[in-house]
């Protein structure tokens, strides 16, 4: 742990520096690869939608003595149309999922289950979802997504600068895309809880990006006046300076999510907790990556196109070489324009 | 150039902030005590119960989906649900304008009854029977003989109608009162051709359940008509008494299904009618209630029905609490390992935040009927991470400042000035996402968004009136300002190995 803190100090001073901004093509390629794989998985396999989206019925019986075969036989005897999925959940529960049922049909299934397993009807956990219900919640989730992206873009443009807002949104879309792609690839069930998870990732991924961008903003405030670093170099320093912070905030955010995932999958077997935390777990990991490797390089790229920043880059080059050293090598001291050449921190309160 | 020598300006007054926090906590506690709230109200998924989400059905007839119609439906359904007498039942419309769903939650195990009670449109009609036959459709022996005076289409429809198919026993409520219709009986035992309706549900002024004094346990529903209804029903019964069977029967049609079709032996001018039909006591009472409060102005589809047994509810509550304890324990452990004594501040800040959250749950439960659901618990646990993040942002900022060679007290103040901006912007984004999630979602998602937003607000509060003041206070202590190895501010742990090389000119 102390080692990591020491690294934090070296990263802060610029003694140790990872060349994140300059190697943006590498990060873009990695992400492009993931996004292509996601599109492929979505097109070929599609998402594995839960009954909430397709419509259907689900019955959970808590009785240790019941076997999957008995439950299947009991439901199939009734002659319910469509596929019947019977699963064992945890030690003592059986879950039966069918296609869309009318209330009357559902009553028949329930009656069959109560007699076969001699349990009271009240102790069967049921969920009936109408066939058009999924469309309704999908529509709402989409509206929510669009409203969120617009609102956040406006807010960040006001709190920071418009180009930061664009870069942050690009990173968020990147995160959602890859997370959904992983879902398609692995074939995890997508339920409303999963969708909550996806939507929460939006907020969280932005939180991480905001932390990095706040430092970028600070480092680049007077970058043009100082002519010591290009915009990209100042951004790179900011990313390095916040690296330990990003790692820590991500670990701390992942710990409780991991706890929910562990308990949700382990104790309950399936349901809201597992679906939600799985989506969050994957999304948080992707979000941390994008807040370091996607959003800042993209921002630097956008800003470097500005004439003022290009002029700055020329001035810095004229002063003799790049002040940011190659990655993970300790600085060679006393070279005049050494790596500890960070922006002057004047003008503070 | 190195350490600024100007005197440290302490922002805010740390002691005053801590007193404010104490007042806030005591105030919440007092409010909860006055309200008499002793425990957090749990959602149905944590204590068992039934929830039904109804979606207005777009139909092509006169029943357009309007905002007023939905409001009216909510109030009618609320009356029906209240007639169950189950405490803490809830009927709410979620969403906006005409794009709303009605969510009904009833605790306990009255499951199936709730579903039946709220789902039916309860469109009541009295129609003269034109023809009756046994249930089966097709050309079998039981095929109906065509009725006189009825269009061939209706006769054909009647012949093929199969009342043993459950799909035909749905009770759609789509029968237009002025049409001749074919209908099944509720039990599926017979089918009918029925004349246009002569008495309608809105002409009923009272409905009550009663038991037949002579019969063993024959429950029925007694209807009382208003003035128009009395006249119309009197005229209908007077006209059919003299007709041959089955035309002397009057069918009582509820949502497109025939509940009963008694033969009329004499005209009934009194304005009362009985509906019989092998009802149990509960069924008779529920039907009377449904009829008393009137038909819904819209037909609804059951979007989602969820029935959670108390056992599963208890399991889920337990799992949620274990996950919360585990999550917060892991965060404590990490903070202490990484930030040493400074981590203790994280621990205390989280405990304060948890206490505030619990008190708010209590107070809001009474004040606005807030209920804690499993998704809500998940939201709170996820928010532990977001809350702890604020502390990390703050602490790392202090370390950054210390790396530049500042004294600890000076680092705390200048670090705070910078961290404050980051924390506010980041929390605003989090609150923004919670608010939007809340307004665009239905059911469980709302619970999640609500707690997520609430915890983010608490986080802001705790950082401002607890964490920052405490750090300001402890920065004065020798243990921290001298950089004790366990303080989290030692030269080693912040990596301040070259204290003089921070800046070059």
Automatic annotation (TrEMBL), chain A:
GO terms for biological process: intracellular protein transmembrane transport; protein targeting; protein transport by the Sec complex. Residues 110-304 form the Protein export membrane protein SecD/SecF C-terminal domain. It is found in: Cell membrane. It holds the Pfam family SecD_SecF_C. Residues 319-349 are annotated as: Disordered. Keywords: Cell membrane, Membrane, Protein transport, Translocation, Transmembrane, Transmembrane helix, Transport. GO terms for molecular function: protein-transporting ATPase activity. It is a multi-pass membrane protein. Gene3D superfamilies: Multidrug efflux transporter AcrB transmembrane domain (1.20.1640.10). The chain crosses the membrane at residues 27-51, 141-159, 166-186, 192-213, 251-270, 276-300. InterPro entries: SecD/SecF_arch_bac (IPR022813), SecD/SecF_bac (IPR022645), SecD/SecF_CS (IPR022646), SecD_SecF_C (IPR048634), SecD_SecF_C_bact (IPR055344), SecF_bac (IPR005665). One of its GO terms (cellular component) is plasma membrane. It comes from the Bacteria. Residues 319-328 have a biased composition (Low complexity). Belongs to the SecD/SecF family. SecF subfamily. Forms a complex with SecD. Part of the essential Sec protein translocation apparatus which comprises SecA, SecYEG and auxiliary proteins SecDF. Other proteins may also be involved. Part of the Sec protein translocase complex. Interacts with the SecYEG preprotein conducting channel. SecDF uses the proton motive force (PMF) to complete protein translocation after the ATP-dependent function of SecA. This is Protein-export membrane protein SecF. It comes from Candidatus Planktophila dulcis. The gene is secF.
């Amino acid at each position: 742990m102390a080692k990591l803190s020491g690294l934090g100090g070296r990263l802060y001073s610029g003694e140790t520096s990872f060349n994140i901004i300059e190697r943006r093509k590498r990060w873009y390629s990695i992400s492009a690869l993931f996004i292509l794989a996601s599109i492929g998985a979505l097109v070929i396999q599609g998402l594995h939608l839960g009954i909430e989206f397709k419509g259907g019925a689900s019955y959970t019986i808590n009785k240790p003595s019941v076997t999957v075969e008995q439950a299947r036989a009991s439901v199939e005897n009734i002659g319910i149309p469509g596929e019947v999925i019977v699963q064992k959940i945890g030690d003592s529960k059986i879950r039966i999922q069918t296609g869309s049922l009318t209330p009357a049909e559902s009553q028949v299934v329930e009656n069959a289950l109560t007699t076969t397993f001699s349990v009271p009807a009240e102790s069967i956990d049921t969920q009936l979802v109408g066939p058009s219900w999924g469309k309704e919640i999908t529509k709402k989730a989409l509206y929510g997504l669009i409203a969120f992206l617009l609102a956040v873009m406006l807010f960040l443009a006001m709190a920071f600068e418009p180009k930061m807002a664009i870069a942050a949104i690009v990173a968020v879309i990147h995160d959602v895309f890859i997370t959904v792609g992983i879902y398609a690839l692995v074939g995890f069930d997508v339920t409303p809880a999963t969708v909550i998870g996806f939507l929460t990732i939006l907020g969280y991924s932005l939180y991480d990006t905001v932390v990095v961008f706040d430092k970028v903003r600070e480092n680049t405030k007077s970058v043009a006046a100082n002519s010591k670093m290009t915009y990209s170099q100042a951004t790179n320093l900011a990313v390095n300076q916040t690296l330990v912070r990003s790692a820590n905030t991500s670990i701390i955010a992942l710990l409780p999510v991991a706890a929910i995932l562990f308990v949700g999958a382990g104790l309950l077997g399936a349901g809201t907790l597992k679906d939600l935390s799985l989506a969050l777990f994957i999304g948080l990991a992707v979000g941390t990556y994008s807040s370091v490797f996607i959003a800042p390089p993209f921002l630097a790229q956008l800003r470097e196109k500005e004439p003022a920043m290009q002029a700055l880059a020329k001035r810095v080059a004229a002063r003799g070489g790049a002040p940011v050293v190659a990655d993970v090598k300790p600085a060679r001291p006393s070279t005049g324009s050494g790596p500890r050449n960070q922006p002057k921190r004047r003008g503070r309160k | 150039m190195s350490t600024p020598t100007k005197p440290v300006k302490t922002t805010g007054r740390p002691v005053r902030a801590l007193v404010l926090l104490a007042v806030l906590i005591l105030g919440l506690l007092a409010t909860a005590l006055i309200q008499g709230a002793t425990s957090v109200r749990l959602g149905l998924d944590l204590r068992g119960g039934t929830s039904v989400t109804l979606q207005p059905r777009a139909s092509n007839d006169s029943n357009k989906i309007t905002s007023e119609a939905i409001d009216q439906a909510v109030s009618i359904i609320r009356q029906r649900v209240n007639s169950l007498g189950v405490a803490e039942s809830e009927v709410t419309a979620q969403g906006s304008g005409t794009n709303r769903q009605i969510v009904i939650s009833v605790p306990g195990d009255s499951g199936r009854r709730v579903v039946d009670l709220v789902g039916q449109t309860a469109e009541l009609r009295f129609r003269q029977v034109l023809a009756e036959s046994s249930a089966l459709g097709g050309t079998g022996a039981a095929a109906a003989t065509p009725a006189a005076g009825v269009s061939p289409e209706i006769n054909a429809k009647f012949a093929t109608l199969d009342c043993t198919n459950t799909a035909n026993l749905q009770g759609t409520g789509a029968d237009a009162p002025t049409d001749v219709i074919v209908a099944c009986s509720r039990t599926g035992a017979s089918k009918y051709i029925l004349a246009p309706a002569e008495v309608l549900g809105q002409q009923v002024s009272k409905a009550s359940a009663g038991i037949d004094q002579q019969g063993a346990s024959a429950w029925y529903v007694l209807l009382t008509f208003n003035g128009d209804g009395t006249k119309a029903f009197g005229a209908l019964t007077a006209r059919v008494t003299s007709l041959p069977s089955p035309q002397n029967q009057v069918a009582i049609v509820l949502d497109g299904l025939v509940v009963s079709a008694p033969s009329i032996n004499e005209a009934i001018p009194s304005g009362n009618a009985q509906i019989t039909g092998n009802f149990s006591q509960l069924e008779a009472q529920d039907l009377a209630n449904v009829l008393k409060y009137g038909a819904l102005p819209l037909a609804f589809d059951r979007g989602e029905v969820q029935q959670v047994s108390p056992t599963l509810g208890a399991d889920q509550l337990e799992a949620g609490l274990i996950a919360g304890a585990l999550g917060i324990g892991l965060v404590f452990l990490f903070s202490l390992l990484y930030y040493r004594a400074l981590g203790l501040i994280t621990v205390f800040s989280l405990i304060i935040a948890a206490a505030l959250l619990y008190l708010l749950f209590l107070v809001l439960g009474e004040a606005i009927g807030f209920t804690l659901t499993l998704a809500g618990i998940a939201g709170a646990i996820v928010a532990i991470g977001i809350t702890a993040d604020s502390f990390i942002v703050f602490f790392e900022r202090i370390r950054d400042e210390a790396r530049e060679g500042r004294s600890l007290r000076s680092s705390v103040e200048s670090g705070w000035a910078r961290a404050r901006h980051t924390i506010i912007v980041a929390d605003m984004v989090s609150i923004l996402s919670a608010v939007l999630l809340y307004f665009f979602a239905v059911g469980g998602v709302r619970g999640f968004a609500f707690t997520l937003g609430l915890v983010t607000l608490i986080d802001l509060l705790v950082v401002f009136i607890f964490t920052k003041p405490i750090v300001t206070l402890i920065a004065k202590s020798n243990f921290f300002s001298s950089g004790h190895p366990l303080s989290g501010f030692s030269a080693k742990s912040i990596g301040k190995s070259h204290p003089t090389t921070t800046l070059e000119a």
